[in-house]
Design a protein that fits this description.
The protein is of the alpha+beta class. It contains 1 helix and 6 strands, in the order E-E-E-E-E-E-H. The radius of gyration is 21 Å and the shape is flat.
Length: 132
């Protein structure tokens, strides 16, 4: 796996459920994150006269923020059993001793994300204005 930084169309992020009182062991939420531009004329929904939705067909690479290097990914699995003595089990995050954290210049990160978002917004604004 190679490191990179990019603006993508759709990505799902999984995280442990926060409600630990009632729930299944290992229950997770899956949140959909989308990069899209939506222009609507009229009421949003069924009453919209015109609607334009623009998204990314391919990821938009953001160079110069993260050094491109090959990495090996490790995952450490944990398990716990619910019993009458421990009816609630909280399993926290687990990291391998081989975990490698990436150093990122915050100024380059913010500028790269701003430029990628600006490029996407300008492209779809131009498309919208030329077609509607």
């Amino acid at each position: 796996m190679f490191t990179n930084f990019r603006l993508i169309n759709t990505h799902y992020v999984s995280a442990p459920k926060e409600n630990k009182v009632i729930g299944l062991k290992g229950a997770q939420t899956f949140d959909n994150i989308q990069s899209k531009v939506v222009f609507t004329q009229g009421k949003i929904g069924l009453g919209a006269e015109t609607q334009y939705t623009g998204s990314l067909k391919t990821p938009l690479e953001i160079d110069g923020v993260i050094k491109k290097e090959k990495m090996v990914v490790y995952s450490k699995q944990g398990s716990a059993t619910v019993t009458s003595i421990t009816p609630i089990v909280i399993v926290g995050p687990s990291y391998s001793e081989n975990t490698k954290w990436l150093d990122v210049d915050s100024q380059k990160y913010a500028l790269g994300l701003y430029n990628a978002g600006s490029k996407m917004l300008k492209h779809h604004t131009t498309e919208f204005l030329s077609n509607y």
